[in-house]
Amino acid sequence: MMDTMSSNHVQDVTHEELIALLNEDLAGEYQAIVSAVVYSQALKGPQYMNIAAELELHAAEALSHALIIAGQIDYLGGMPLAVAKPVQTSSEVTDMLRFDLENKTETITRYRKRVRQCEALGEYALAEQVRDILVQEQDHQIALASALGIPVPRGNSGPTGWSVEGALASALGGNPHATQVQS
Length: 183
What we know:
single chain; mainly alpha; Ferritin; 5 helices
């Protein structure tokens, strides 16, 4: 199901639609686990050791998020799916970090909507669990933006025109595919 609603309006969803949306979120958490494992091992060089260690922690947190989301899907009467969203890879460190930041920004946008949808259905405990996950996702987003030397995203390229690609291009002097982040 497409997650299409404006940032100011909560789309009415049924419990069945919420289960489908949570399964999309679960696929995103699986993606986060795989990407954090791959990226943490692919980052080479002393300048990336701290980032690699942070990504290893992100993998463990994403697994925790997946377990929470899967448990809530089961609670709502659904079956957790076992399919991850695709993971982008690159030989360039900044590309991997950018991919991860884009995914975190999308995840945050989805979870903000999910909180409102859960509350609209009276699923307040689920909304609180999603809020807890949201706090960790925002921490990851801040760490990734800092590692890339760009401003923390406030959302996907929406009405503000903000995008990870544009912020990275600005931070890298106009080339979003440059291989090193300027200090």
